[in-house]
Specification:
The structure holds 2 protein chains of 2 kinds. Chain A is mainly α. Chain A is built from 8 helices and no strands. Chain A has helices at 2-23, 33-46, 51-59, 61-81, 98-120, 129-146, 154-178, 202-226. Chain A is globular, with a radius of gyration of 23 Å. The longest helix of chain B is centred in the C-terminal third of the chain and has 32 residues, at 50-81. The termini of chain B are far apart. Chain B is built from 3 helices and no strands. In chain B, helix 1 packs antiparallel against helix 2 and helix 2 (26-46) runs antiparallel to helix 3.
């Protein structure tokens, strides 16, 4: 009984805390000074048609590097906790249904291509490295679900992951040497606004992030599937 | 019109969340959590944030659901061994 009252009290306090967001909040009429600068100078300065990408990859590039590092630590933790003790015992798993198998044959190349499209066009259309990487990982999950005996080559995954991470940081350091600062994208020519090869290093950095995120997520799924309790 | 749509979307999300907590079957609860993420991604799209919507749809309703399902499978297998 007393537990119930405590829960109600907590909920009441929480509602009271959130009340100002309902009663006192006013919609933003204009952007903050920093955002105004990004919107005004972003397209000319960095040459990226998608302003969100130029903020994520360049203006706030350090945050993105931090996010990638967090994901890496999470993937490393899962890999450490769930050790891959060899193959999945076939007797334990059912064969996938015909619909799933033939659907995967048709869909897998398309999903993979779509993921690559998302991170290559990150500076032009919504989306970028993270989204593209997740789409690629979900395509590989489809493959793992459809084919019970499918194996992922862990060494290749580790190489893709570490190489793209190292090159990403190296590109960032190159920004200090050749341009205005760490992770500055103007180490490559800006190109024509709105073209695939434009916006300096943004497409390159997004491709590296996409490969890294995809490899990490596939690693997580693979160790979850192979782990034997 | 758009406000009504957003309010309806929010109400359906709350209903799905309550259902997910109340569910007896863990499988349905996991799927309902995926539904919430999918509706949230539609909400982000309506609020003109396509980048966030893509992330939510891919990670929230896609990958997280699959990871939960794998974990559920493991728990069931372990239960059988004991």
């Amino acid at each position: 009984m007393i537990k119930k009252y405590a829960v109600l009290l907590l909920l009441g306090a929480f509602a009271l805390m959130l009340l100002p967001f309902v009663t006192e909040v006013t919609p933003f009429e204009e952007l903050s000074p920093v955002a105004q600068k990004y919107v005004k100078d972003g397209p000319d300065e960095l040459g990226s048609a998608n302003l969100v990408s130029s903020v994520i990859v360049t203006y706030r590039g350090l945050d993105t590097l931090g996010e990638v590092a967090v994901l890496f630590i999470a993937a490393a933790g899962v890999g450490f906790m769930l050790r891959r003790k060899g193959d999945v015992k076939k007797s334990l798993r059912r064969e996938a249904s015909g619909i799933l198998r033939s659907g995967t044959v048709f869909l897998f190349p398309l999903v993979l291509l779509y993921g690559i499209y998302i991170f290559l066009h990150g500076h032009l259309t919504p989306g970028g490295g993270f989204q593209g990487g997740v789409v690629i990982a979900s395509g590989i999950v489809l493959l793992l679900l459809a084919d019970v005996s499918a194996k992922i080559n862990g060494t290749v995954l580790q190489w893709i992951e570490s190489l793209s991470g190292a090159v990403y940081v190296a590109l960032g350091v190159l920004g200090i040497v050749l341009a205005a600062g760490f992770l500055d994208n103007r180490i490559l020519p800006a190109g024509e606004f709105g073209r695939l090869l434009s916006a300096g290093a943004i497409p390159l950095i997004y491709s590296l992030i996409g490969l890294k995120v995809g490899a990490e997520l596939v690693g997580i799924i693979d160790s979850m599937q192979k782990d034997e309790l | 019109m758009i406000t009504v749509f957003i309010i309806v979307l929010g109400l359906v999300m709350i209903a799905a969340a309550v259902l997910a907590v109340q569910q007896k079957s863990l499988l349905s609860a996991v799927l309902l959590a995926g539904v919430i993420s999918l509706l949230a991604s539609i909400l982000y799209l309506v609020l003109a944030a396509p980048d966030v919507a893509m992330t939510e749809a891919a990670i929230g309703s896609g990958l997280t659901t699959i990871v939960f399902l794998f974990a559920l499978n493991k728990i069931r297998k372990q239960g059988k061994h004991d």
